[in-house]
Write a structure and sequence with these properties.
By secondary structure, the chain is mainly alpha-helical. The protein has 14 helices and 2 strands; from the N terminus they run ααααααααββαααααα. Helix 1 (3-19) runs antiparallel to helix 2 and helix 7 runs antiparallel to helix 9 (182-192). It is elongated and about 75 Å long. The relative contact order is 0.09.
Length: 292
């Protein structure tokens, strides 16, 4: 990095510290990212769009998260230079953009789910302490697709006899209707009968059980069912709820409503698991397929 570049980077970092309240760790990360760019572009503060174009091939082997962080640091740096009058233009449009890939959800197949329910029901039938509660947790995670935070904080009054659904206020403070199967309702009723007075369906010593505790319970139940514990979490069971409903013929818009997704693009990630069924559908039902 040239002396001029180093001075401008120092001024930029001073601005981040004083005006944005950036931490020492953040400032160190920005300096490191700008130094990495200066190793490719010799005069960083004066680089043209063509010169910045060299960063993409030079950084092609970086992880998407690292590339995104470096590009963000450079965008902010060039925005600072333009605002402070150190250069008239902003070449940031030439910076490499990481490929945005939404990770596919981990899922359990129906055999895994059956194994978890068999183990949970056996434990509940033996009157083992906590076993009935754990069965109710499993019923509501897989049977209703609740988020972990929604499940652990369920009030007892949310369930009413002869009402096959819950009204929840979930993520983003949005209200939605959640179905409750008859078997889940039965398990909830049996569990509620064992509870002392209190506001929560899943109480703890200090309030209701935590998401961390729910995570631990689900992994323990996976181990009891002969499933590798690292494969199972509350969110994986919510994914299973969604993917198995879709495979059974559920409409994507209905699934969006059940999951409480604001954007259907979030729901569409579940369609990957149904690709084989869709291919089979086209091969069997498309008019051209019948002419073969």
């Amino acid at each position: 990095m040239t002396g001029d570049d180093r001075a401008l980077v120092d001024r930029f970092l001073d601005m981040l510290a004083s005006e944005a309240g950036a931490s020492r760790h953040t400032l160190s990360a920005y300096r490191s990212d700008l130094s990495a760019a200066a190793a490719v572009v010799s005069r960083l503060s004066e680089a043209s769009m063509d010169e910045l174009g060299r960063l993409a091939p030079a950084w092609s082997d970086l992880a998407s998260a690292t590339l995104a962080r470096r590009s963000a640091a450079l965008r902010r740096f060039y925005g600072f230079l333009q605002e402070e009058g150190f250069r008239a233009d902003n070449p940031a449009a030439a910076l490499p953009r990481p490929r945005q890939v939404r990770p596919l959800p981990r899922i359990l197949d129906s055999d895994d789910i059956d194994a978890m329910f068999r183990a949970a029901e056996d434990k509940a039938a033996s009157d083992e302490p906590g076993a009935l509660r754990n069965l109710v947790l499993l019923e509501l995670l897989y049977g209703s697709g609740l988020r972990a935070s929604e499940l652990v904080s369920l009030p007892r009054r949310a369930f009413r006899k002869e009402q096959p659904f819950l009204i929840l206020r979930g993520k983003g403070d949005k209200e939605r209707m959640v179905p409750v199967s008859s078997r889940a309702a039965d398990a909830v009723e049996r569990w509620s009968a064992q509870l002392a007075d209190g506001p929560w369906l899943f109480p703890s010593r200090t309030g209701h059980i935590s998401r961390v505790r729910l995570f631990q319970i689900m992994r323990g139940m996976a181990g009891q069912a002969g499933i590798a514990p690292e494969r199972v979490s509350p969110h994986v069971l919510r994914h299973a709820f969604a993917t198995h409903l879709l495979a059974g013929g559920a409409d994507l818009r209905a699934l969006q409503t059940l999951l409480g997704h604001a954007d259907i693009a979030t729901t569409q990630i579940y369609t990957h698991v149904d690709s084989e069924r869709l291919v089979q559908l086209v091969n069997e039902r498309h008019p051209l397929a019948r002419k073969q």
